Amino acid sequence: MLLQKELIPMIEANLPNMAYAEKDIAKFFLKQQPLNDYSSKA
User: Domain of life of the organism in this record (predicted)?
Assistant: First the structure.
């Protein structure tokens, strides 16, 4: 899956450069369970 292969490592690599609020949002998505769907189409 594109998310796991490309985006997750990119987010993890950039965590040290992020602001506090950005880190909180990034950590939310890094810990997100695959069953959660927060899109507006649901």
Answer: Bacteria
Q: How far apart are CA 26 and CA 29, in angstroms?
A: 5
Q: Is residue 42 part of a domain?
A: no
Per-residue pLDDT of 1-42, as tens digits, reads: 566 778 889 999 999 999 999 999 998 888 866 666 677 875
Domain that holds residue 20: 2-27
Quote the pLDDT of residue 7. 85
Whether residue 38 lies inside any domain: the answer is no
